[in-house]
Amino acid sequence: MSGRSFSYATEAFEFIEGLENLVTPQDVINAVEKSFGIFGFENFIITGLPNPRESFEQVVLLKKWPVGWFNIYAKEDYVRVDPIIRLCRTTVQPFEWSEAPYDRASEPQAAEVMDRATDFRMKEGFCLPIHGIQGYEACFSMSGAHLDLSPQKKPALHLMAMYAFERARQLLKPSPYNGSGLLTPREREALTWAAAGKSAADTGEILGITERTVTAHIASACQKLEAANKTQAVARALQFKLIGL
């Protein structure tokens, strides 16, 4: 691992450990602003994806957005035509804003959203879709004027964003999940090695079990933690102190 990528991993784990000591949503906002600023991000929002009967303002959890842009976005109901939000509903993988498809000719409102965002230094961005096994949809979207989203940065950003979301949700609505008995020892071991960046094959070799068994343990942990994927399961297991770094 290069010194450059190691610094990103170190920053991610220090950020995660620091979140445990935060007691208010504003504390989370401040921590995200500080740590994500290292990566070039200036603004971010953590929000649910509204259904047709909900307004955008009703589902926002935390934000650091320019006031003017938030007011415009809400007034124009841009959430219904935003290509970033649309892609969030159909993928569980993090993506750059530039990867959200839309056609400028046939979707002028989608183009308008993206164009007007640049007036507030929100030119480039990275987004983490969040899906629960019971259908809950949300996203963590962050932006800046000049970003360098290299492959070395994205895994760290993914984990940081997921954990920040979990901490914010916990502070706003405490989760019922707690206690070391929630996961079996093997499930905790599998998630601990996943948190350290090990693949299922690597973990199987370390623990002396098959890759298939490791995958089964992780899948079981995901179900118990109501996580849509391994990264979300790791974040929740860290949050509930079921595993350590």
From TrEMBL:
Keywords: DNA-binding, Transcription, Transcription regulation
Coiled-coil blocks: none
Pfam families to which the protein is assigned, alphabetical: Autoind_bind, GerE
InterPro entries: Sig_transdc_resp-reg_C-effctor, TF_LuxR_autoind-bd_dom, TF_LuxR_autoind-bd_dom_sf, Tscrpt_reg_LuxR_C, WH-like_DNA-bd_sf
SUPFAM superfamilies associated with the record: C-terminal effector domain of the bipartite response regulators, Pheromone-binding domain of LuxR-like quorum-sensing transcription factors
Ranges of residues in domain HTH luxR-type: 176-241
Name of the protein in question: Autoinducer binding domain-containing protein
